[in-house]
Write a structure and sequence with these properties.
With 450 residues, this protein is an alpha/beta fold. It folds into 3 domains: 108 residues, Beta-Lactamase (2-Layer Sandwich), CATH 3.30.450.20; 178 residues, Rossmann fold, CATH 3.40.50.300; 122 residues, no CATH class. Helices cover 44% and strands 15% of the residues. The strands form 3 sheets. The chain has a 5-stranded antiparallel beta sheet. Strands 7-8-11-6-12 form a 5-stranded parallel beta sheet. The longest helix is centred in the last third of the chain and has 25 residues. The protein is elongated, with a radius of gyration of 27 Å. The termini are far apart. Bound molecules: adenosine-5'-triphosphate.
């Protein structure tokens, strides 16, 4: 092994350290903050098929390949554990950790946790068989859906699935547009699941629902004591949590203008600064945005920054509205089966009359509305869609109070169905309905006798 000056030396300790590093049977490499290799042990040199002198002083990506993240780790994006890497035809599972000195990051070390992928798979199989609990990423960070969950037939849906596959193949920003409930979040999750970042987190932020005074701290994190009520040890923001994966910015059209400026700066510099902090932290993530707002119109009327729009709109995806898709019957059958399984009841069969009713409706709430109507059908035995046509009808003044009470009772029926579907879990029921927890509690309160 050849050591950099700061590790080289003739003392007994330095000699012993060199031997230890070479006798570690796993590959080990260290870089400085520029990503330049400053240390590499014999096992790694053997895997690379060369001598240490050939590799020292070169950038890690030149030697190991572009998919390594060690140079980002050396710039402070955090630790990667279990990061898969293919080096000269060898599949490794690595751990990449920053090296600190006097409270500052001075580089990073990459260590192969497993150099033999097949052996790892066999070990994993044995562990799974023994049903040992393997700690997993928190559920909220994982994408739950893949391309197979995007149900639909016909040319529009085929083109949609092709667009998702294309977006998954390139590590570029994606802007997903479409009406409410069309499956924009589903599309974002499918892209993440299909992409090279699938082992990284999928972190979701709803730009419309976070109070504007909290949104900076939520996105960029904060240092301890940054403001009244802040945790003393500080908190990482969504950008940091999404390191190595995808940050999904839902309802981007509702992002306050001031924050749009901050987001643009992050995208330009690739760094964030926590609220109350001074040190920039490098970030490595992919941004996927979604909106049901006409973003171009928002740009024209000055409510959305044009420069940010162009940064985000690299790979645009338009999710078709349900009424345009032409595959309603197919989708309905599929969803009915899925909901029935979730509720542990047999799936009802749709009659010709049911089909007619479904096709006659315009589905302003798209697939989410269809899911809810079908859930209600399972619970009540009949399809009720009419009152949800409110956006497409103009009721007379006399009809308004009747319409209001019918909408209320529809909302309560939907609430009961969603609670059943979610096994009584209110958070999940709110998600099923696409409303906030506070709205769900309001509905529950309305429903309960005074
Ligand atoms: N093609 C599809 N196949 C199966 N399920 C779908 C499809 N599209 C949407 N869904 C389902 O419809 C519901 C709404 O989807 P999603 O939350 O992705 O919509 P959205 O467009 O992000 O909604 P919003 O604009 O209100 O945030 C989810 O339960 C989702 O699984």
């Amino acid at each position: 092994m050849t050591l950099p000056e700061w590790l080289a030396g003739s003392s007994e300790e330095a000699g012993f350290l060199r031997l230890v590093l070479d006798h570690v049977s796993d590959c080990l490499v260290a870089v400085d903050t520029e990503g330049t290799i400053v240390l590499i042990n014999d096992p790694y040199c053997r895997l690379l098929g060369g001598e240490a002198e050939e590799f020292l002083g070169r950038h890690i990506t030149d030697v190991v390949g572009p998919q390594t993240r060690l140079h980002f780790v050396a710039r402070g994006i955090g630790t990667h554990i279990g990061y898969p890497l293919e080096v000269r035809g060898h599949k490794l599972v690595t751990k990449q950790v920053p090296v600190h000195k006097d409270g500052r990051i001075i580089g990073a070390v990459g260590l192969a946790l497993f150099s033999d992928y097949d052996a790892l798979k066999k070990t994993y199989g044995r562990i799974s068989k023994a049903e040992l609990a393997i700690p997993s990423k928190p559920k909220a960070w994982q994408s739950k859906f893949g391309l197979d969950d995007v149900i639909g037939t016909g040319p529009l849906m085929e083109a949609h699935r092709d667009a998702l596959k294309l977006a998954a193949a390139y590590d570029l920003p994606v802007l997903i547009c479409g009406e409410t409930g069309t499956g924009k979040e589903l599309a974002a999750q499918a892209i993440h699941s299909l992409s090279d970042r699938s082992t990284g987190p999928f972190v979701w932020v709803n730009c419309a629902s976070i109070p504007s005074e909290l949104i900076e701290a939520e996105l960029f994190g904060y240092e301890g004591g940054a403001f009244t009520g802040a945790r003393s040890q500080g908190k990482p923001g969504k950008f940091e949590l999404a390191t190595g994966g995808v940050l999904f910015l839902d309802e981007i059209g509702d992002m306050p203008l001031a924050l749009q400026g901050s987001l643009l700066r992050v995208l330009q510099t690739g760094e964030i600064v926590r609220v109350g902090g001074t040190n920039p932290v490098g970030i490595d993530l992919r941004i996927i945005c979604a909106t049901n707002k006409p973003l171009v119109e928002l740009v024209q009327t000055g409510r959305f920054r044009e420069d940010l729009y162009h940064r985000l709109n690299v790979l645009p995806i338009e999710v078709p509205a349900l009424r345009e898709r032409g595959d309603l019957a197919h989708l309905a059958e599929h969803l009915l089966a899925r909901i029935a399984t979730r509720l542990s009841v047999p799936a009802p069969v749709l009659t010709a009359e049911d089909h007619d009713r479904l096709v006659a409706h315009t589905w302003p709430g798209n697939v989410r509305e269809l899911e809810n109507a079908l859930t209600r059908m399972i619970v009540t035995g009949h399809i009720s869609t009419a009152s949800l046509d409110y956006r497409h009808r103009s009721p007379s003044v006399d009809a308004k109070s009747d319409l209001k009470s019918r909408m209320k009772s529809e909302a309560h029926a939907a609430l009961r169905a969603a609670l059943m579907q979610a096994g009584g879990n209110k958070q999940r029921a709110a998600e099923v309905l696409g409303i906030s927890r506070a709205q769900l509690y309001r509905l529950l309160k309305e429903q309960s006798p005074a």
